Each structure stands twice: as structure tokens, then as C-alpha cells.
Amino acid sequence: MQGRLDQETNRFAVLQLSGCAGCEVSLLNAEAWVDRYRLVYMPLVISAYDVPEVDVLLVSGGVRTDEDLYNLRRAVRRAHQVVAVGTCAISGGVASLGDRDEVRELFLTGEGRRHVPRLLPRCRPIDAFVNVDRYLPGCPPTPELFMAVLFNPPDFKPSKIVCQECGRKKLQRGDPHDVRPTHLVGFQRGEVLPGVCLINQGYLCIGSSTRGGCRAPCPRAGHPCVGCRGPSDVLIEKESSVWFESIGRVFAAMTDVPAEEVATALRSPQLALFLFQFSDYAGGQGRPPRPKEKVL
Question: Which end of the chain is less packed: N or C, by CB atoms within 10 Å?
Fold first, then answer.
């Protein structure tokens, strides 16, 4: 968005496809838009049958059913700008877990199903079907990021990577407090030392490759970054092998954890939900790459 919209035309809608409503809750936790925008459609809080003409359409959730696809194509025709909000709308996210064969089999063989939307072959991001003006990654994006995409404030300058916002100190080789872990620590094991980089403590944190802007709430609280904000601008147009190697080099420099252990952990189910989207930005399957200039 260029500048602020006129008070009379500040109308926006939130279209929720297959997702968890986390993005909607995050938006509601923000307050700056209340006096400057009029929310005209958001089924979570507003009773409305259809999306009216709006300046900005925020779309959350993935395209998982034929109903999702119908609602998406119908809504974008009434919006001046379309913003893909959150991991699900950008790369499938939680909704894409239904792509697993055993989940589909359970759904399709269930007895007594009535009036359930038809599943599409797989969950797709919204830009596989419609043009997107801006991308707002995160699971969910923070309230501050929602305000940034709505108002485009000139003083909002997100950091390039999460590490720059974390505030934890990276211990270098030779530092008397550097313990050089030899194995990764599980997400729920051990006591997290305050103020010390989680990688130095053996946690699988990928904040060094993840785009900033969220203010690093997870690593600040002692929980490793899982990459929900997607790749940094340096990696956004690169192949998956490049960012895997980038993360590996960070762990090689700061720990003595075997490279094979790090590589296996990066491909584990606990990270697959978000980390897979790093390669999704490069395009494929007939979809062009996502320009980093469109990604907040």
C-alpha cells in the first residue's frame, strides 16, 4: 500500500479459508486499525454473507476444498489489494497436513458425511489461483506486522533475520562460557540459560535464516525459532540445498553437533510444518517465484 488510505475508503475484509484462526486472533489483538479502518467482513466476529467492495482483502488459510477456491475467486474480484496472510495462505501450513495419505483416507472413508466441502487433490497456497499484491508470513503474524501491512508506516524497518531481534548473546569459540554442545537438545529438555544463544545451548534454532520483523518472541522466551516467518531475503530466491547448507554452517561454527544429526533434525516432523515453505518461495508447478519486494 502506498501511504494511508482516505478515512472514507479505509475498508478491509478478512477471508478465512482452511486454517486455525490464529491470524485472525492476532489481528484482533492489535488496536491501531480500529479508528482508521472499517472491518466489513470477518466471519469470526462479523455476521455477513459475502465480501463487499474493499480496499484491502486479507486472506488467511490454505485452499484445501472446492469451497475455499470458490470463496477466494469470488472475493478477490471485489478487492483493490490482496494480501496473503500467514503460513497457510502462503505455503499451506497446518491445512497441508491433510495432504498425508492416511489423513485423506480417514476423511474419505468416514461414514455418514453430509454436505462436507469436497477436498481438492492437495492444499495449495492462494497465489496458485489468484494474484497476490503482498505477502505477510508468520504463524501467526504479530499484531505489529498486521499494522505494518495495513498502514505502511515509514518508521517500520524490520530486521533482516530473527537473530538480529533476539537479543541473546552468541558465544564464540574460546569464550569461557562456551560449552560447545555435541548433540542437539530436544525442544522440551534441559534448562534454558537466559541471555545465551539457543544454538550455543544445543537447541535447533533457525533464526539465522528466518526473516525478521516479528521481534523474536519465541527465542526471547527460550523457545527455538522454527522458521514460521519464512526465508530471509538472502535465501528467498535460492534452492533448498543453499539454505540447508547455510543453517548447517551456523551449527558447525557454534557447536560440535555432527552435521548428519543437524541435517536429520531439520527434516523432522516438528520442523517440516514451517521449514518446507523456504523452498516454496522459489516457485514451481507453473507458479512463478515470489518477489522478495512483495514479502513483508
Answer: N
Closest CA to 271 of 207, 220, 211: 207
Q: Amino acid identity of 135?
A: Y
**3-class secondary structure, 62:** strand
Q: Which helix (H) or strand (E) holds 59?
A: strand 54-60
User: What number of other Cβ atoms are within 10 A of residue 57's Cβ?
Assistant: 26
Amino acid at 32: A
Please name which of 49, 57, 64 lies closest in space to residue 18, comparing C-alpha atoms: 64
**pLDDT 10s digits, 25-41:** 899 888 788 888 899 99
Q: Do the strands 63-65 and 38-41 form a parallel or antiparallel pair, or are they unpaired?
A: unpaired
Smallest CA-to-CA distance from 89 within 54, 130, 117 is with: 130
Return the H-helix or E-strand segment holding 230: none
The 10 Å Cβ neighbour count of residue 79 is 23
DSSP state of 220: H
The structural domains of the chain, ordered by start, are: 7-156 (3.40.50.700), 163-280 (no CATH)
Q: Which of 12, 289, 278, 292 is nearest to 127 (CA)?
A: 289
Scored b (16 or more CB within 10 A) or e, 264-277 reads eebeeeebebbbbb
The pTM is what? 0.82
CA atoms within 13 A on the CB side of 131: 6
Extract the runs of DSSP E, i.e. beta strands, from 153-274: none
Q: Cα torsion for 32, 34, 35, 37, to the nearest 10°?
A: 100
| Secondary structure tally for the chain: helices H, strands E | 11, 7
The whole-angstrom separation of Cα 92 and Cα 19 is: 9
DSSP code at position 277? H
Longest dimension (CA), the chain: 65
In this predicted model, what pLDDT tens digit does every residue of 188-197 receive, in sequence order? 566 888 899 9
